[in-house]
Amino acid sequence: MELVNMVESQIIASIKDQKDIDKAIKSSANIAFLLTGDISTVENYINQLREAGMYIFIHLDFMEGLSNSRSAVKYIADVLKPTGIITTKINMIKYAKEEGLITIQRIFLIDRAAIQKGIEMVKSCKPDAVEVLPGLMPKVIDQLSRQLKLPLIVGGLIQEKEDILLALEAGALAVSSGDPRMWNFNL
Fold first, then answer.
1. pLDDT tens digits, residue range 96-128?
2. Residue 53, pLDDT above cutoff 90
3. Is 130 helix (H, G, I), strand (E, B) or coil?
4. Distance (Å, rounded) from C-alpha 169 to C-alpha 155?
5. Secondary structure of the chain: what % helix, strand, coil (to 5)?
6. What's CA 16's distance to the chain center, in Å?
7. Of 32, 64, 109, 132, which has the fewest beta carbons less than 10 angstroms from its beta carbon?
8. 64 burial via Cβ count (<10 Å: 0-12, 13-18, 19+)
9. β-strands 31-34, 11-15: how paired?
10. What does the DSSP 8-state code read for residue 101?
11. Residue 82 reports pLDDT greater than 90
């Protein structure tokens, strides 16, 4: 299934702490970005979210105990079985695609050079979607959605519903937020 078809709520629960898993499960979000856990806890977190009917993407850069290697990605795909992964690392995107996982490339846009570098990275590894941080740049979101022609997820520094609406209007598919209060916005 393509990521675009998974999105029911345009708010994605970006879970940064184990205590927020229940809040994500009870929220309107149907997609969870898991930014917490380690090799001994992540399977339990994934199972809880899966039982609640959520699509789960684990952020490889935040998982303790898993190296940045092909074998780590194989373990994730074969044992943990999330919907997909998020990472800033090109090689991990390539490995995850080989294992049949949906991939999201996270890029940080701090200046023009970072935008150009991000575009080049995305074009070289061909993820299924791109997560852009910070998400408060409608002009840049519009530019990227036109140039990359991939689903864009934006996050970071989003503080109110208006920020979300501006990002969606600029071309974002969805907005990831670590703020549980935002997970219940009906979008």
1. 999 999 999 999 999 989 999 999 999 999 999
2. yes
3. strand
4. 14
5. 45, 20, 35
6. 12
7. 64
8. exposed
9. parallel
10. -
11. yes
